[in-house]
């Protein structure tokens, strides 16, 4: 029924496609590891008063990083992620997630689930996001068109900070509370690993991604090495 | 007037230095005062920081102690174990318990107390929004810290209010877990500012986001304060305080030190500002206006040195003025008076320096101009003729006329008739008769008011060196020639020719010579001198010969001779006549 010539041709193409597919899968690797933050970045407070003393009965609990730490790879060839809409909810006087990695043109929806209103803006990029009151239950949509790092702050509650990293790289990972991260489909080759935490790039290192992937322990130095890029 | 001018310049320089010092001297004092005020503000700011710190700890401890209340612990423990359910069953009990525990909440300065369960949900409030509960505030850092087991403080600037926050965990009764937290919000406004003012003696303002929330000074007058802080925001952020900044409140000058509040409020540009009134600018007028009577008391003010110095300045100035101006003026005036009264022939202009000397010379020149009488050359001429005619009459120093004057019987000054005859004003200072010498033979003067009478008037015309008439009484008017002649001293034997015409007529000359010869012979005889060999012809020839010499030498019209006694001997004197 089928022309043997045509059948052979399809078979050959199928084998070729399978070969290409295998080759592509073999070029992607996974970069994973642990980010170790200095004490000053994991105490959970950006603003300290005069006193912070431990109670004498119950062991102290670690601060929740709230997803505010990001590992980003730049340099390798990648396919840019398309713009989309992402949401940030402000509830209980905190924003979740605390950090976003989005592509250019992405729209971020800020939803206020608190009983109090919030005044959100990007003070260091006033041309991007003007201060505007976000009433309880209201949503504010904001498009980030240009690559860069933006800190969306609440004027009334300065501890509410949303880090918005606008980049074309899809190679990033939100660091877990315990410091773990994992970035899949990383092309082999040279790349730059950057760590974002507490509103700033706090670490940067060069890595060579092999076919078998990388397992890194990223140790972030103290404030002296922190680069307040966004500030 | 040279010294007077120098003195005035010195006094002017001294005054300039004094004025400069008056304006400049307060500047270092101003800077020092400002520096000291700045240091005082520094200490005040440090004290405020310590007060804030102590206060924060006090409130943290207070709320931690409050969290040990059994009923609260039970209620929060129960609410926390409720999960996401309704907190209403515990809201009332917790709120009432808080009211019971803190009955004097307002009195102690606590604006509100919030109880949250283990998830950070508000169980109850006292103070603000007491009816609100259920919402989560777990995101607030101080609350999250408390729920992790920390006792800490913060400062919030929400809702255009500034509140100091203290939070502490509430532990279960078994002390093995955290069942919630208590948060206290403390007033941070007028009351706090007034307390700091009472304790530190400085004015206080609290600023939040370019608004003066409260102040011990009228807030409306502190419009420049937020801008001032914004200008120095970087300095404040880096040093946790500003230096002492000048601030103007209306017409008042203040020194202000701004420092940020701790915690979240630091991000909200919340500052406390300590201010003190600056002393007024220390310009001389401000200094004078701020002096009191005590400052001018004897013991506090150097009246004696200052008064003595001023008197010395004035005295020296007056002395110099008197010495250089008033006295010369007085003398000049006296001389001018004497001149006007024809008591002197000219002003001794060499006695005066500067402009007074110029005035004297001008007067002399003017008088000479009016009289057209040049200075007599009589002195040299007399000497010549006397030496020629009678060498014995010449004195050792060659000034026969002066020496002979010593024999004048009267001490009253006798004017120099020759000089008067020649010119009232052209007499040389060494003219004969000025030192009381014998009267010279008067020569017929031109009939002008300035010329002297043809006859000498010894008692009328004192020499310039002679003392003025007593009591400055006007001297008697010149007598007519006959009377004057009668009034002359017998030793002064004027020649009759002196009163005669001085024309060049031969007859008159012969008569003049005869008269002189007769007088001469008579006087020699009187003096006991020999007249042997003395003939009129030889005498006349000699006189004519010497007259010619005088006329040639002095370019005069003629010469007149007089006879007089000198040292007990007869002598002759020749006076050239120009007019």
Describe this structure in words.
- The complex is a heterodimer of chains A (231) and B (579).
- Chain A is mostly beta strands.
- Helices cover 12% and strands 43% of the residues of chain A.
- Chain A has helices at residues 4-27, 39-42, and strands at residues 28-36, 52-54, 70-74, 85-91, 94-96, 99-102, 106-112, 118-121, 132-134, 139-144, 148-154, 161-166, 172-174, 180-187, 189-197, 200-209, 214-219.
- In chain A, the strands form four sheets. A five-stranded mixed sheet of chain A has the order 6-12-11-8-9, with no helix packed on it. Chain A has a four-stranded antiparallel sheet with strand order 13-3-15-16, with no helix packed on it.
- In chain A, strand 11 (148-154) and strand 12 (161-166) form a beta hairpin.
- Chain A is globular.
- By secondary structure, chain B is α+β, with helices and mostly antiparallel strands.
- Chain B is built from 19 helices and twelve strands.
- Chain B has helices spanning 2-24, 26-66, 70-81, 88-101, 105-108, 141-147, 190-200, 224-231, 233-239, 264-267, 284-289, 303-340, 354-371, 378-389, 400-405, 417-422, 481-487, 506-526, 536-554; strands spanning 110-117, 122-126, 150-156, 163-171, 178-187, 203-208, 211-215, 245-249, 252-260, 270-277, 558-566, 569-577.
- In chain B, the strands form three sheets. Chain B has a five-stranded antiparallel sheet. In chain B, strands 7-6-10-9-8 form a five-stranded antiparallel sheet, with helices on both faces. Chain B has a two-stranded antiparallel ribbon with strand order 11-12.
- In chain B, strand 8 (245-249) and strand 9 (252-260) form a beta hairpin.
- Chain B is rod-shaped, with a radius of gyration of 58 Å.
- The two termini of chain B are 41 Å apart.
- The A-B interface holds A 44-55, 57-64, 91-95, 114-116, 155-160 and B 52-53, 56-57, 60, 64, 120, 132, 135-145, 147-155, 157-159, 165, 168-169, 171, 175-178, 209, 262-264, 266-268.
